[in-house]
């Protein structure tokens, strides 16, 4: 039971920042709202100025004032319990798709929803081991329809929206494409960040291993020697992907952050191997 005196909560429907959570301790809500319409009254009710119900609130990262209540996002700033919906800026018809790129009624391009998660934009499962082929297919489809060249004869507003939508899709695609940036983004959605300069927190044995690898790469005299280091690094990265996926699946965020720190260093070595190989060409 959750009770806060004189608390009013408005459901921010379509905020888009509500991927399936990693933590497992959330209680289901009977008849929870889905799709574009949602209302706080589904999971709690007001009685004498107090909200009651089986609510599992959880802070939403850096988005102050936003909280998760099961599968919806709520704001503690608003004083309204009115259902929030989005309408086309041009014809005013209700937008059906989530997120809405175009209006179903007049086919006009819509402004981007900046707070929508990249997973939702790219129509991908909220998982570390997502389908990159599906991701690429979705990217190409969106860019074909959203590219600014398609709106050169449209209004200035539509051209601006296409540029913003295209840029957002590019950013979402690049972030989710590689395991390291994808994992860091998932931690960011959980309110956790990988700080710069994490050497002081790293395991001394791991740092020694990195030093030896870098020295061996610097002393490599042939492409074969550099390739061996590269293949060994790829194997370590593959093992880390399995471990990170398991940690995120269990909701072990601190463990995932530690593993992502290691991945960052190995990814850096992988880039150095490519540079070394280019020297032999």
UniProtKB/TrEMBL annotation:
Pathway: Cofactor biosynthesis; iron-sulfur cluster biosynthesis. InterPro entries: DnaJ_domain, HscB, HscB_C_sf, HscB_oligo_C, J_dom_sf. Pfam families: HSCB_C (PF07743). One of its GO terms (cellular component) is mitochondrion. It is found in: Cytoplasm; Mitochondrion. Residues 116-181 form the J domain. One of its GO terms (biological process) is protein complex oligomerization. The keyword Kinase does not apply. It comes from the Eukaryota. One of its GO terms (molecular function) is metal ion binding. Keywords: Chaperone, Cytoplasm, Metal-binding, Mitochondrion. The keyword Cytoplasm applies. Belongs to the HscB family. Acts as a co-chaperone in iron-sulfur cluster assembly in the cytoplasm. Also mediates complex formation between components of the cytosolic iron-sulfur biogenesis pathway and the CIA targeting complex composed of CIAO1, DIPK1B/FAM69B and MMS19 by binding directly to the scaffold protein ISCU and to CIAO1. This facilitates iron-sulfur cluster insertion into a number of cytoplasmic and nuclear proteins including POLD1, ELP3, DPYD and PPAT. Homodimer. Interacts with ISCU (cytoplasmic form); this interaction stabilizes the (Fe-S) clusters on ISCU. Interacts with the CIA complex member CIAO1 (via LYR motif). Interacts with ISCU and HSPA9 to form an iron-sulfur transfer complex. Interacts with SDHAF1 (via the first LYR motif); the interaction recruits the iron-sulfur transfer complex composed of HSC20, HSPA9 and ISCU and mediates the incorporation of iron-sulfur clusters into SDHB which also interacts with HSC20. Interacts with the cytoplasmic form of ISCU and with CIA complex member CIAO1 (via LYR motif). This is Iron-sulfur cluster co-chaperone protein HscB.
């Amino acid at each position: 039971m959750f009770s806060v005196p004189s608390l009013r909560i408005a459901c921010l429907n379509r905020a888009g920042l509500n991927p399936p959570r990693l933590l497992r301790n959330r209680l289901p809500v009977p008849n929870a709202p889905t799709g574009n319409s949602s209302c706080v009254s589904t999971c709690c009710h007001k009685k004498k100025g107090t909200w009651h119900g089986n609510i599992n609130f959880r802070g939403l990262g850096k988005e102050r004032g936003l909280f998760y209540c099961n599968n919806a996002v709520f704001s503690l700033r608003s004083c309204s319990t009115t259902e929030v919906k989005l309408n086309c800026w041009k014809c005013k018809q209700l937008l059906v798709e989530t997120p809405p790129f175009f209006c179903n009624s007049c086919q006009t391009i819509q402004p981007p929803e900046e707070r929508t998660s990249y997973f939702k934009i790219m129509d991908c499962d909220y998982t570390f081991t997502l389908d990159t082929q599906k991701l690429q297919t979705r990217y190409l489809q969106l860019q074909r329809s959203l590219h600014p060249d398609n709106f050169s004869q449209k209004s200035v507003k539509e051209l601006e929206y296409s540029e913003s939508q295209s840029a957002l899709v590019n950013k979402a695609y690049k972030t989710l494409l590689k395991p390291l940036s994808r994992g860091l983004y998932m931690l960011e959605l959980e309110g956790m960040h990988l700080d710069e300069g994490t050497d002081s927190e790293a395991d001394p044995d791991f740092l020694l291993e990195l030093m030896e690898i870098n020295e061996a790469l610097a002393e490599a005299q042939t492409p074969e020697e550099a390739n061996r280091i590269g293949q060994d690094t790829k194997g370590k990265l593959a093992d880390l992907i399995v471990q990170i996926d398991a940690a995120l699946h269990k909701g072990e965020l601190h463990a995932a952050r530690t593993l992502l720190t290691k991945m960052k260093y190995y990814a850096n070595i992988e880039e150095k191997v490519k540079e070394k190989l280019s020297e032999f060409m």
